[in-house]
Amino acid sequence: MPRLAEQRHPGARVPDPGDRGRLLRVRADRRMSAEETTEDFDLVVIGGGPAGLTAARDVAAAGGRVMVVDENHAMGGKLRGQLHEDPADSSWWKGWELAEQAEKDAVDAGAQMMTDVVAWGLEPGWTVRLTYPAGRTGGPSQLTSRAVLVATGAVERPMPVAGWTLPGAMTIGAAQVLTNIHRVKPGHRVLVVGMDVLSLTIARAMQLAGVDVVGIVLPPTTVEGSSPRATLSRLAPMAKLAPARYMRLGGHFLGWPWVQALASRLVPRTLRMWGMPLQLRTSLVVIQGTDQVTGAALVNVTADGTPIPGSEREVAVDAVCLANGLIPLNELLATLDCSFLRSPDLGGTVPVHSDTLRTQLDGMYVAGNTIGIESAKIAEKQGALVALSIIDDLGLSSRRGGDAAGAALDLVGARRTMEFQFDANVQRGHDDVQRAWEKSGGRA
Ligand SMILES: Cc1cc2nc3c(=O)[nH]c(=O)nc-3n(C[C@H](O)[C@H](O)[C@H](O)COP(=O)(O)OP(=O)(O)OC[C@H]3O[C@@H](n4cnc5c(N)ncnc54)[C@H](O)[C@@H]3O)c2cc1C
């Protein structure tokens, strides 16, 4: 795969070797020694994304003994791959810089970090069972802690389609990691399948990196929610990110069902977004190729997603990126005595929790995409909120001040003013969880 020229990427930052050296030294000092097999903490955080790192920073600053574990080789979670342009002032959201800073802030506050380690089990009390990727040995097999925060983030929903196992076919998240973290182009001519906040921002990042994004089309008609009408409803919450004023205005009205119905019939077959063709009434049929991706078969569809016979055609591409939304990742909690609620507004099934992010289990907390798909800014706010709950429950005293109930209200306000949402009804999903929490009687 072709390497990206660093200077052609507007989000690229050549790290200052001095900075990096300082950060690594701080990290090394704070790491657990390989000989330790178990150790007691006030808080173990599972997942070093924006939610986990923010909570770790605040609880450590309040005097808590904190350990963050993450399965990746670097902290930061999905934040590390993010690159967006703010249409209001053309500033850049460079996730990898923010991730590095979030880790440094947590370490400076006294939190310890372990990377390349997977938490595979939780036992009440609390014991966190650990395992290591092949080849690494010598780390602790478990950690014991008064409190545990599950901040494991989200995973991509697969899109099974003929040809999806060919080299060159990948999820949109993989394309994001290749482009923004490894600075490698996913392909020369790329087709993006699926239209949502994530696929459009990552298509834009690929375009900025010099990739020819030949089209953004709808998923195969067999995929749930792939019709033009359903797709238009998903584009409404990202209206503020659109490059042109008419799109921002039009996107705002897409929140109304009758506008969606009308637009799905009248919208032009191809719209251009940042110059990339957004083919709102074209679906993928199959990915083509023998040893690798060489093309894709497409078909035009009606507003309700029915294929139009005779409109089949082929497009030559060397990579296809599949985007079918995100699912909250919370399987660790499924082994415990904890209820779950299914909420399409939140992206899937989430553990029932209070608005201050306590679960039904004493000493067990949740934050970030684990409890619903939202942006990194919201995950960070949830991290700060859950830290206040943990500090209170553990009898520590917060240096930052504030109370969890007030922070929970601020979070609701922050959602309203976010520049984009993954789902327009995300607050409705959180309200449903609150009702389930109250009905369940709260913490056991
Ligand atoms: C592929 C993908 C791309 C995304 N791109 C964007 C984007 O461009 N813009 C945006 O605003 N949002 C994006 N998001 C949403 C993103 O999840 C949030 O922005 C934010 O990063 C969520 O923060 P978090 O702390 O909840 O989780 P994450 O940032 O996902 O961090 C969770 C961390 O926990 C680790 N982990 C999970 N399970 C375990 C375990 N058992 N043991 C150890 N470690 C574990 C994960 O590997 C990860 O490092 C994306 C999400 C995904 C899945």
UniProtKB/TrEMBL annotation:
Transmembrane segments: none
InterPro entries: FAD/NAD-bd_sf, FAD/NAD-binding_dom, Metab_Enz_Cyan_OpOx_G3PDH
Annotated region described as Disordered, given as residue ranges: 1-20
Residue ranges of domain FAD/NAD(P)-binding in the record: 41-383
Gene Ontology MF terms in the entry: oxidoreductase activity
Source organism superkingdom: Bacteria
Keywords from the UniProt entry: Oxidoreductase
PANTHER family: ANAEROBIC GLYCEROL-3-PHOSPHATE DEHYDROGENASE SUBUNIT B (PTHR42949)
Name of the molecule in the record: FAD-binding protein
Lineage: Bacteria, Bacillati, Actinomycetota, Actinomycetes, Micrococcales
